[in-house]
Amino acid sequence: MIQDSNIHEECGVFAIWGVPNAAELTYYGLHSLQHRGQEGCGIVAADDYGRLERIKGLGLVTEVFDNAKLASLKGNRAIGHVRYSTSGGGGLDNVQPFLFRHNSGDFALAHNGNIVNSAKLRKYLEDRGSLFQSTSDSEILAHLIKKDPTERHLPRIIPIMEAFNMLEGAFAFVIMTQRRIYAARDKYGLRPLSLGRIGDGYVVSSETCAFSVVGAEYIRDLEPGEVVTIDRHGIRSARYSEYQRHAMCAMEYIYFSRPDSDIEGVNVHAFRKATGRMLFEEAPADADIVVGVPDSSLSAAMGYAEASGLPYEMGLIKNKYIGRTFIQPSQELRDKGVKMKLSPVRSILEGKRVVLIDDSIVRGTTSRKIVTMLREAGATEVHVCFYGVDISTYEELLCAHKSIEEARKTIGADSLSFLSPDALFKAGNRSDLCLACFCGTYPTELYDSIENANKDGKF
Amino acid sequence: MIQDSNIHEECGVFAIWGVPNAAELTYYGLHSLQHRGQEGCGIVAADDYGRLERIKGLGLVTEVFDNAKLASLKGNRAIGHVRYSTSGGGGLDNVQPFLFRHNSGDFALAHNGNIVNSAKLRKYLEDRGSLFQSTSDSEILAHLIKKDPTERHLPRIIPIMEAFNMLEGAFAFVIMTQRRIYAARDKYGLRPLSLGRIGDGYVVSSETCAFSVVGAEYIRDLEPGEVVTIDRHGIRSARYSEYQRHAMCAMEYIYFSRPDSDIEGVNVHAFRKATGRMLFEEAPADADIVVGVPDSSLSAAMGYAEASGLPYEMGLIKNKYIGRTFIQPSQELRDKGVKMKLSPVRSILEGKRVVLIDDSIVRGTTSRKIVTMLREAGATEVHVCFYGVDISTYEELLCAHKSIEEARKTIGADSLSFLSPDALFKAGNRSDLCLACFCGTYPTELYDSIENANKDGKF
Amino acid sequence: MIQDSNIHEECGVFAIWGVPNAAELTYYGLHSLQHRGQEGCGIVAADDYGRLERIKGLGLVTEVFDNAKLASLKGNRAIGHVRYSTSGGGGLDNVQPFLFRHNSGDFALAHNGNIVNSAKLRKYLEDRGSLFQSTSDSEILAHLIKKDPTERHLPRIIPIMEAFNMLEGAFAFVIMTQRRIYAARDKYGLRPLSLGRIGDGYVVSSETCAFSVVGAEYIRDLEPGEVVTIDRHGIRSARYSEYQRHAMCAMEYIYFSRPDSDIEGVNVHAFRKATGRMLFEEAPADADIVVGVPDSSLSAAMGYAEASGLPYEMGLIKNKYIGRTFIQPSQELRDKGVKMKLSPVRSILEGKRVVLIDDSIVRGTTSRKIVTMLREAGATEVHVCFYGVDISTYEELLCAHKSIEEARKTIGADSLSFLSPDALFKAGNRSDLCLACFCGTYPTELYDSIENANKDGKF
Amino acid sequence: MIQDSNIHEECGVFAIWGVPNAAELTYYGLHSLQHRGQEGCGIVAADDYGRLERIKGLGLVTEVFDNAKLASLKGNRAIGHVRYSTSGGGGLDNVQPFLFRHNSGDFALAHNGNIVNSAKLRKYLEDRGSLFQSTSDSEILAHLIKKDPTERHLPRIIPIMEAFNMLEGAFAFVIMTQRRIYAARDKYGLRPLSLGRIGDGYVVSSETCAFSVVGAEYIRDLEPGEVVTIDRHGIRSARYSEYQRHAMCAMEYIYFSRPDSDIEGVNVHAFRKATGRMLFEEAPADADIVVGVPDSSLSAAMGYAEASGLPYEMGLIKNKYIGRTFIQPSQELRDKGVKMKLSPVRSILEGKRVVLIDDSIVRGTTSRKIVTMLREAGATEVHVCFYGVDISTYEELLCAHKSIEEARKTIGADSLSFLSPDALFKAGNRSDLCLACFCGTYPTELYDSIENANKDGKF
């Protein structure tokens, strides 16, 4: 339950090549990635003449698309995007894919991730005459690709690879030109991107859960620093960077991904369940029942229950019908006890000592509310366990300058524990996860400001 | 997963008296009852002058209401309804609450249940000059109440109680007149209805989960055959029938209700979990993992897992963003493997012997699809267990003229078992559940036809 | 420009029998009657099995219907309605056609007009057990038709004719049963209704303008007191009343109808133009230009211009894009000069003495605003001429207790004149128009109150 | 009635500076310019901190904006645009204003007109690395302004003026930066743009009709080649070009503008009426009535009627409720006589010799349909008069290689006449109108192709 955080801009990208009804399949693909972003979405399709058409809008895929719109997107290839609702906003202008009209051929792109040197790159490009129409860092890649028109006679992939090399940060990109689709991951391997086969064609997706939905077969994950080209000749792989690391963002396992997705060979549900088991090993609580905060923390709670022998119970229910058009209760009503999203279950909680499993503490506000809610519903003790380890870096975060004991008091728990990084690595059976969001050690420089960019004035 | 059945018309009713923003609270109450009906919904509010205003429409509460519409419903009392999508349809005309304009005072009503003598009553009323504007059996009550204008000088509750006495079947009704709210349950106790306190006022709901959402406190369930009157003098109880039985519909526990609701003192999640435990006792399968069909069967699967010691796994994922505006995949796409609603998780299922827990078999079509899906995703064995006991009555149902072995072959399972009625009673710690949907023994005559009504020609 | 009046509830009805795509043609028919009502609209269609389906909603026909909804209305007969926005409101519940479900066969009806003894009839019906679901007087007819179930073995038209005989007031009704369409006018001939031929079928419409739109041929107007039956045997005429009068509402010619419609043989544009000519004869003003208030008064202004030799000018422009979703300017903006609907044209008005032609004065508020607007745009004199004669009856109307001189001062005109009733009769070449709205002499009792109905307690 | 032509891309622009509720006033301004474009519209508003926010969408202003969206556009300045539906399409991407995000300050622009050297300019810019996100020629100006980042320390207006000088064609632009609004017309004076005063601020509009709607006072038209700067210091004028001509597009008077607008001192209605008078002088027809094709040709028909002494009649009625959501009748229904948009009035036309006044013939298809419609409604003769002069240039146009006699036969008229250019000049009391659309002599090169641009490869 980390929705009060915006350190991440997580989105979902999807691409499909070489099958009829490409836009329709993209619709179903994006639908299965909807949990990665509900603010807006879009699809660009290309027909046999290389004409790119786009539909995009604010809202869920079921809100943005209807039959008529989907039918207007013709052709056997398409790319799509679901966008996470961030505080930065930007509204419709920032909804992807971005679509560019160029005399050398139109192209479109969609991006999941954060470009950390975006301010510098943007200034560099604007100083050369580039003009941006969004506040999204994803638009930068397009301008980088087209920045040097003398490169137009080179093979097309060269400027694309050069552009990738200029980006610092976390990304998974899909790019569609009139004749090709390109897919690439950052060289640190921070964001997931998988490749599948569908009929005689190919599919690329942020998560593998989309593969089973569209009837595709998983081939492999893209490699860090790899760019895959798909066209009528089939599939080709290239590396735009010598550097390579597998620092998959731990939050993908912990929070963002759907439990039925596999990330680099590890199933998300299985990962979470393992963290739950290890939470019990590291911090066994003397309690009666185990409760997970839905939806992300249910798997971990099951794992804790299995390891501890305590019953796993649905002590918190999440209302699944909350969408864009939901009318938020006023402060007055919330003060009077109107609860949204999460409801505690008195008949389950009453008189019980509860182990509460959640993914991560951020500012602690949400955790405090949940603990209070459980106590009001009759829980006699609440032991809070985060399988998303300790966050010890950011000033704005609860634990920034507090000990665990201080944090425990703040959220009002009877005990508080965080999973150790080692256990987290063990859960994934890999020691190379990026824990930057938790411990502040990034494989790449994170917050880059326009001030810095202006200071040196060059890229 | 019984959505291919329509033997039940399950809906949700909600009423609130004596608090400001009554319509707004009704919105949140209906929102928490949304799982009971997604076809349409409506709210009628009454202001201090007894003026009743209504907003209703097709779709979810978040689709039908916006801020402006909600603000137009003024006053400190309201009733609301969410309607289940049934094959009968009827569209907007059948969406409740029904609102009647009468010189003795306008009134509105909302109903959950089935009136089994509706054809007879309808003919009886039409023969007296009544005119119906919907195909819903719920409209009958209103005509019954007003059928005899000589009764206008009696206390208002008399004709209402007489009307309830003429109804055979399952019902929970809320009625709002200019000065009062009435709430009543059928004398068999087939449908749930609970009473709560909120501020200085009262709230009535099909399920108790709505109470915690709106900040109300549970008082008690209404009794079978009881009618509760709420007005400025407070609350009064009366019995419209001497007869009383507690034959709560087993499907309320098994399928319809939200796990955080308590029905007549028994928590739904706890009930389901107990059925899961007993399923294992009655039919232990030699398997590797336990998988529940989301959402209704997750609790039972947990219970089975706990009892068996087998791990409970998320082998099936349900897409939670499917709503009214979702574009269903064409048959062609479905044949090519496009899956909606349920996705199997290959990395969990592959090579595993699976115990699949579901609520009830109906025609078997859905069960066969799910079993096939699990096998395609790598399950080596699939043992299907229904905690919703055997269905042995209806011709249209799979098991009607088949042995369990025939049924097993039809759905393609390695083994098939149904929970015994005794175990179901034990799960609820009560022996008075109505199993009519399963065994065909009804506390009240069920299917009544217009032919019969015409034959004897009178009520 | 009489929109600040609500003495009339003018609507449009349409019916079609015996042609494919009946609902689609009804859509186009209603579209051409849209000027008669913009609050809401609906269509009921019947298929070959006599199944009646309805779509209705608030808004214009282009807002309520889309391709999918229209396609769902199958069959070769249909009736439709457009509803005028009245202060009474009632929202969706009052939008017609009304649709009734009955064991003797479903039926639907749509109505244009006012039933003046509605309060009495309603009480009479409610005292017999009838239950109303709208506040519309149109619903009464249905209950009257079905009030006596002993009549079920009589030919179907008998109860319908009896019901018409109980109604006092102005009406044009279309009724669709499973096998027939009935159309009828009140015995005073107050509301128009015309009959046409289309292919092998028939069409009925409030105005003839709909005939040319759907490709139908005008046959004749229905007679006062006539009911026409259309079924597979063709067309039959009957009289439900001996009494007959041709007191067509003058407002139909003056304000409501589209200029291309013919009412009882007289074209509306031609009528209005003639009134304009006679306005000049009766009240010649010494002026420079003639300006009509759009849209209804343009024809009369042309007539005045022709007769006077003065140029007809577009001194006022009406914005045609104002619809249901238009955001009304705040009072603050209106005070600052934001004008909607009507814009004066300075370059035409400046320095000119203007003859302003309008249809009718009601409370005078609108007229005062228009005169002020013309002066601010440079008009040196404004001579106001109403071709809708003097209104001298209602207290709430400007002229109620005022002389014409007082009225002139109130609206700020340099001169004020009303067309004489004789001239109005001459314009229509008929002396039998109903001027009740203007002079208070009704062919039927107009405002009937619930008090009166209660006093005598019977019909 | 020239909607079957697309030689023009006519739109409407609006800007407002220095008053509260700027976006709201822009809404009303655009609403009064709605006749200039119904495909889409947008508003960009700037608050006191220079933050630019945009709402845009497909459809009418009443469809794109609601109260919440309008309220989100804060600040005391704004620009807006309504877009004409052209065959080129482009959908949402081409809807203006365009909004650019730049480190030197965000800016937005809106454009009415055609840039004839757009292909060359676009190639020139793309060769320098510019990246376009629409197919609209209006986007070019923004890239021209920002193409040379070395100019950033010059006064801001310099690059804007340089950019205007590179554009060939017809334009009226409004540009909003964080601190200023710029407005400019092309040096030929082909497109109108007027300046007004509102409170302590200013307003700029394609047509003066918007001034009276928002309560503004007309100051003057912008001069050809002039750019006006509005900021907190007030208003300043500059000339970006020495060259100046007043070649106002004749179509603005003939077809595009609202009759209550004044263009360079000449009222549109008065202009059209004068053309009608001169049509009679040049081509007097022996007829009974004069009929104009609504809406644009009504004024000219009135002029013809006045000059000829023949009565002006409403022989054709246009349905005003046709909008974006109108369901077009199928070919089958149209073949069966279903008529949209225009209805002939039989009772007016029957037995009459008709003079039909229309604005311009293009391919003749529409004219032939209207003539046929009039004859079917009983007209004995139809004499067609176009006040939009002869079109003699384009191959695709009817008259291209045909004599007037051939054209007459094609459209089926009894006689056919075109107003002479001299008479058109006389009607406007000016001899400098651009008749390019009619005679092919353009003040600026018109159709420029990408081939040509590619051939010489440079600007």
Comma- or semicolon-separated keywords:
homotetramer, about 450 residues, alpha+beta, Glutamine Phosphoribosylpyrophosphate, subunit 1, domain 1, Rossmann fold, 7-stranded antiparallel β-sheet, 6-stranded antiparallel β-sheet, 21 strands, about 25% strand, elongated, disordered N terminus, disordered C terminus
Describe the structure.
4 copies of one chain form a homotetramer. Chain A is α+β, with helices and mostly antiparallel strands. Chain A folds into 2 domains: 12-247, Aminohydrolase, N-terminal nucleophile (Ntn) domain (Glutamine Phosphoribosylpyrophosphate, subunit 1, domain 1), CATH 3.60.20.10; 267-320 and 339-432, Rossmann fold (3-Layer(aba) Sandwich), CATH 3.40.50. Helix content of chain A is 29%, strand content 24%. In chain A, strand 19, helix 13 and strand 20 form a beta-alpha-beta unit. In chain A, helix 9 (268-282) packs antiparallel against helix 15 (421-428). The two termini of chain A are 38 Å apart. In chain A, 59% of the residues are buried. Chains in contact: A-B, A-D, B-C, C-D. Chains A and B meet through helix 1, helix 2, helix 7, helix 9 and helix 10 of A and helix 1, helix 2, helix 7, helix 9 and helix 10 of B.
